[in-house]
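Researcher: Good morning. I'm working through a list of sequences from a screen, and I'd like to move beyond sequence-only analysis. For each chain I'm collecting a predicted structure so we can compare shapes side by side. This is the next one on the list. No need for commentary yet; just the structure.
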Amino acid sequence: MQYGKDYSLEITSEAVHYNQWIYDLMHPYLGARVLELGAGIGVMTPFFLLEGREVTAIDIDEQLVHRHRQRVAASPRLTVSCVSIQELAAKNEYREAFDAVVSSNVLEHIPDGTDREAVMAMSGLLRPGGFAVHWVPACQCIFGSLDASFGHQRRYNRKMAQALFGQAGFEIVSCQYWNMPGFVGWWLYGRRRHIKALSRSFTLTYDRFVVPLIRVIEPRLWRPFGQSLLIVARRQDL
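Model: Good morning. Structure tokens for this chain:
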């Protein structure tokens, strides 16, 4: 699973405040053994390796897996594989092997129907009580040219995300919108059909000046919408 164009991948890798924010929101649920779904070029992998965690990073794109291995330093605690989550779940050695299955801007790339298969596979890979933690684009009403350019199949609302994981037998722990200013910016950019990517200057300026403010202010606010959504779901004891 991938973000779409190489350009967007490189810009995302430079958005250090944004990536740190996502990691900090996921941090309470990670445990010691993490499966990173759709790891791409490894933007988030170094965060997940912190605190001595063991990380298995997977992606179905061979070129992205190759770039991941070039970009992220090899470690005995890191396994990088070109494999789908369904294929991984079919291997006995990975059954209930992880404390958390995580992804950042990945599920929206998976075709309808196959996304349900991916979530079912997560259940088999997680230990009982383990967490599925996923950051996804939110609010279909702002779907536009940027989403199409990045290969998005959909944007999620809370009801959709909760149903996706609930129908796979997960207990929903949290499902919250984040980044309300980004909602407005994405809608404005997405209405312009000729715009296929966010400019580097805009992205880095937003990351440096806006994201730190959002991190402080938004947790204190009622958030009925946002550019993104974080869903946390727990595998129930069977």
